[in-house]
Every structure is written in structure tokens, then in C-alpha cells.
Amino acid sequence: MRLGAVIITMGDRPAELRALLASVAGQEGDPVEIVVVGNGAPVGDVAAGVRTVELPENLGIPGGRNVGIEAFGPAGSAVDVLLFLDDDGRLPDPGTAELIRAAFAADPVLGIVSFRIADPETGLTQRRHVPRLRASDPLRSSRVTTFLGGANAVRTRVLAEVGPLPGGFFYAHEETDLAWRALDAGWMIDYRADMVLSHPATEPSRHAAYHRMVARNRVWLARRNLPAPFVPLYLGVWLLLALVRRPSLPALRAWLGGFREGWSTPCGPRRPMKWRTVWRLTRLGRPPVI
Asked: Residue 178 and residue 2: Cα distance in Å, rounded?
């Protein structure tokens, strides 16, 4: 099973990028092909054999990753599975690639694997990095309904069948958009606690546009993918949660502005999921109302 890795970078973490590339190159089994995408920035020096693509502008996280996918041929067809890794992460276990090969080989309906993210200093996994509602035990693997954007592996047949990441999202919720489309096409998603990406603990709100994009893309996600009766239910729950969490006044204003923007701007093609997919999401523990 041929593996490739897509890494996007802004060129501002050269030491971390080199460490990540070394950890991918050091994986056991057949070599993992690597493409590094400079997202509006030069990539810098990389090891021999690592391909690079430098974009003249920042296309956002999903846009940059889509360019990396196409570097492996249409929908990544030159390989069987693509790893998407944050440029400040690292694969500490040299056997991770072999675990990935075994997982996909053993389960023909497995479309996406979400890795466990662990802080390199403490070994702890943040609750938000466990892609399910019951997140108290990050060491428990399970079927899930979404995945972590910078620590995952995707079967390229999924991309060929359901399409790439939604480039217009730029940042936030692009993984869930792809996950819902994959589930709707009959694929499954696993969270694997034994596949680890070391990554420093961070808060997503460090990004200046975080609150606006999270809210805007949440609306786009619902408009694009949910059956009509679920759109107001899903967004109503998230509006209530945003208020219950009592964000600062500037954060709330940004969130509400993004929420309005999500309704007033084009979200891309609408392809509502089948009702059986709604039931599948419900059986997996996350009905599409939250």
C-alpha cells in the first residue's frame, strides 16, 4: 500500500518542519512520499527526495492541502493513502506508517483515520483533539464522525469519490465537511489512539479570525450538507452553545458577524446527506444537531 504525505507550511517554523520530515522519512516499511506546500511562502531547505510546491498566495488550510493532493495526481491517485500532517508536529513512533497500512488493508470500508495528538512535553491529549462527544478517555479508539485536520490519513479513493476539501472554507470545519460527504458515500472513520502525532498544546482562538470563520463555516457546513429540517436545528444548537460559553464581547461580535456572513454568502454546492446517513451519525453517537 503506497503512502504519501501532504504538509503545508507558512515558512515560519523551519526547525519544526525539518523534525517532521525526518520523522516521516524514518518510518518503517516502504518510503512515504512527501510533498510540502508553501502556502503563500517559500518552503526553505528540505531533504533530498522531498517535493515542494510554492504558492504565490495563501489559499488557506483546505486550499493548500488540495494543492498537495493534486501533486500526487488527480485526487492523489498516485498513492493509496495520503497523510495530512501539521508542520509543527512529529511522528514519534517509526511504526506508524505500518499501522496505517494494516488498518486500511484490514477494513475495506475504512476511509479516514484520525490520529491522537499528544503534547510532546506532557504526553497529554487535549479534549478538543478527541473527535467525539465522549472525549474523557483519549486512549480509547473508536468509530467517529469527523477527524483532526493536521493528523490524519485518507484513502485516496474517498477523495476521488466525494471530492476534495472545501477550499472556500479557508480555515475551520473543512474536515467535518469532508467527513460527512465520506460517511454519506458509505465510508467509515476511525479515531486511533495508537497512531500519535506529537504536537504542542495550543488554543485555536490564537488565530485572529477564529471566531468569525468558525461561525461562518458552521453555517456553510449545514447549508451544504444537512437535510433541510436539520439546518435550523443544528445551527440553533450551536448558537445557543456560543451564548452559553459566555465569550468576550469582541469574540461574540466576531462570532455573530461570521454567523450572519454564513447565511449571506455562497457556500458552494448543496448536496444534502441521505437520511440513512443521519441515522448512521446518530448510531455513531453524534446526530447532526451538535
From this structure: 22
